[in-house]
Amino acid sequence: MAAEIETSYELFIGGKSVPGAEGGRATLLNPATNRPLATTALATASDARNAMEVADRAFRESGWAGDDGARRARTLVKLAQLLDSRLEAFTALESLNQGKPLREAKGDIAFVVRTLEYASGLADKIQGETIPVPGARFDYTVREPLGVTVHIAPWNFPLVLAIRSVAPALAAGNAVVLKPASLTPLTAIKFAQLATEAGVPAGILNVVVGSGREVGEALLQDPRGRAISFTGSVEVGHRIAELAAQRMVPATLELGGKSPVVVFADADLDRAAKAVGFGIFGNAGQMCWAGSRLIVHASVHAAFLDKVRSIAAALRLGAGTDPGVEMGPLVSAEHATRVLGYVEIARSDGGKILTGGGRPAAPELSNGNFVQPTVIDGVPGTSRSVREEIFGPVLTVSSFETTEEAIAQANATEFGLFAALWTRDVAVAHSVAQRLEAGMVTVNDPPMTFPQSPFTGFKESGLGFEQGIDAVRAYTRRKNVLVNLGGARPKK
Ligand code: NAP
Ligand code: MG
């Protein structure tokens, strides 16, 4: 499969693959080996402005934004079908570039297909209201596309987190400029080519690859941008919010997390242990909503940790592209070092490492960015390893006696993206779910989402939402039209 993968990629602007204006290139490394896997054209701020200009022209001239939502719907369905027909190729490319196991990458691409189908269904249902007002007047609202929308994506679910905002923006009739993460741009570039094949007009979906600081900020500062969708870290999220405020444009911010998993004594411990493993070792823990803080009832603490530890210790590590691998490398050498730094913090703050805690010993993994699945018990809640997002396969554990204590521990964080709870007691499930300060809660399930469910974080985890029936709201504006019909309103 690797033989089919291209090794040279360009920017995608105005329906064409183009080099950057200054001819710069970046080399991407395979996270499993740190050997070069491909090069991409590297955009500068002037390429970013060019993409915005091209998008703005396409918005005004291509007819995409016209009144025929059904046409956009058909195009997005066609794009979904094309992507589905290339599922294997996109899966292989995502796995190779990002490092995740093929099985997970396949789930990602399937999610993108489903996202496109879902967004296509919204394209012809963007409508307004009529509003009763006094006198001989007629008042109504219309929902309009915004123009050019800017989308900035992270590297952990490269195509999923790009297209979950791009799809509704396109469905609503906007022109899009997408900046994927510098480490993982490949599937976004191929996706834009596919969109053209599906009939998305030239200039309606553009992809620029380049650094967040230069290219990302140039996109956000461009006067043609009318909305921003950003998924990434809290730190950069604050910067994006500042830039959005300066230009008075709306920003949807999907940021980090430090999500609790609360396991009550009556839970199905086997299912819960599997879900805990999935929630922190899936994608090597590089998930905004990783269940990274396990809070378990004291009476089942030992038994439950045994189960979680054996799941962690049994995971098969390797290159994501090797069939059967269950956990891949982290995305970069720098990131692996950062994650291991947090393990050291936990250790020196008194944490007891139950399994993992370092790099795997296998010689065939020594050049890649591998970190062992790690479970650490007894770290005090004040430790940075419990408070800050690690974004790797590292689970910290604490225990509780009372439900009040469990809720207090779960909410003792600046983040509020996700929380899971495990119990067979319906009353406990609903009452605790109500009191968890998280935008998304699962009961007896791992972190789980569908294109039809809103994805949203509270507190430092973000602003606004993606997905769901209102997904187009952030990419449209509402206009009120008041018409004086002349003369007096006839009496009924
Ligand atoms: P990041 O460093 O914030 O980068 C995200 C994107 O922003 C990248 O494309 C990056 O470009 C760009 N960027 C960086 N600085 C910028 C600036 N000053 N102006 C404009 N764009 C800028 O995040 P990451 O390291 O890729 O991803 C990990 C983070 O994302 C974690 O905190 C995770 O929790 C969060 N996340 C949140 C969600 C959610 O839905 N809530 C989902 C997934 C991930 P470069 O690649 O060039 O740096
Ligand atoms: Mg980063």
In what range is the share of β-strand residues? 15-25%
Give the overall form.
globular
By CATH reckoning, the class of the largest domain would read: Alpha Beta
User: Averaging pLDDT over every residue, what do you get?
Assistant: 97
Protein structure class: alpha/beta
TL;DR?
This protein is α/β, with parallel strands linked by helices and 492 residues long. The protein is 37% helix and 22% strand.
Task: Describe this protein's structure.
The protein is an alpha/beta fold. It has 2 domains: 8-255 and 461-479, Aldehyde Dehydrogenase, Chain A, domain 1 (3-Layer(aba) Sandwich), CATH 3.40.605.10; 260-443, Aldehyde Dehydrogenase, Chain A, domain 2 (3-Layer(aba) Sandwich). The protein is 37% helix and 22% strand. The protein has 14 helices and 25 strands. The protein has helices at 45-61, 69-85, 87-98, 102-122, 158-171, 186-198, 212-221, 234-247, 269-281, 301-314, 333-348, 384-387, 403-411, 426-435; strands at 8-9, 11-13, 16-18, 25-29, 36-41, 130-131, 137-145, 148-152, 175-179, 205-207, 225-231, 251-254, 259-263, 291-297, 352-355, 374-377, 394-400, 415-416, 418-422, 440-443, 455-456, 458-459, 462-463, 465-466, 476-484. Strands 15-16-17-14-13-19-20 form a 7-stranded mixed β-sheet, with helices on both faces. The protein has a 6-stranded mixed β-sheet with strand order 10-9-8-11-12-23, sandwiched between helices. A 3-stranded mixed β-sheet has the order 1-5-4, with no helix packed on it. Strand 19, helix 14 and strand 20 (440-443) form a beta-alpha-beta unit. Helix 3 (87-98) crosses helix 4 and helix 9 packs across helix 10 (301-314). The relative contact order is 0.14.
